[in-house]
Write a structure and sequence with these properties.
single chain; mainly alpha; 9 helices; 2 strands
Length: about 210
């Protein structure tokens, strides 16, 4: 469904006019992130988006399909931002690992941070085979694989153990953010990860 153009909506001439599908998508993603998948129904989405229910079902066959579309977009955007941070970090393995951790810490300091959408949805959608659940599992598996690769590049003796430890710290920081905000335990994210990396590096040097 392409964008339509015009000025009869009060927009400046040449400004893209949002389609019903794009309004639905943007509204749903915002509501899902702020309030959760289960708490938001189709009626609320179309009301907030200012469109009709048939418009939603023309764009998405079901709420589950809309959820999956929102998750796919979030995963793609998150992956792009992580790889941008890696590209900016340069070739040094420690700098690259630090860059991803710093990227996560900076996201948690944003005023609009409401946790990781993918992690939040993992709790809400436990059913195996749900289209949203499949995206969640694939995303988290890819994230773990990235940390394993970065840890191997670092030359530590147990890269998978380091990767899992770092993920536990990051996921734990995001979970506690729901209660304490950015001024709670999440503040310790970067220092805790740095200490864990240093421990594995010292262990590798001692075994060399």
């Amino acid at each position: 469904m392409g964008l339509t153009f015009g000025s009869d909506c009060g927009c400046a001439e040449g400004t893209p006019k949002k389609t019903a599908a794009s309004k639905i998508f943007e509204t749903a993603k915002d509501l899902f992130y702020r309030r959760g998948i289960r708490a938001v129904g189709v009626d609320e989405i179309v009301c907030e988006a200012g469109v009709t229910k048939p418009s939603l079902y023309r764009a998405y066959r079901s709420k589950d399909e809309l959820v999956a579309a929102c998750l796919r977009e979030d995963v793609e955007a998150g992956r792009a931002s992580i790889y941008a941070a890696l590209d900016a970090a340069g070739p040094d393995p420690r700098d690259r690992l630090d860059a991803v951790i710093r990227h996560k810490a900076e996201k948690m300091r944003r005023a609009d941070f409401r946790g990781c959408l993918i992690s939040n949805v993992a709790v809400e959608l436990p059913e195996p085979g749900h289209p949203g659940r499949l995206i969640v599992e694939s995303c988290k598996s890819d994230f773990r694989a990235l940390f394993c690769d970065l840890s191997r590049d670092l030359g530590v003796a147990e890269p998978e153990k380091l990767a899992d430890g770092l993920i536990l710290v990051i996921e734990g920081a995001m979970a506690t953010h729901h209660v304490f905000g950015s001024q709670g335990p999440a503040q310790a994210l970067e220092d805790t990860c740095a200490a864990l990396i240093d421990f594995h590096l010292e262990h590798a040097r001692a075994k060399a």
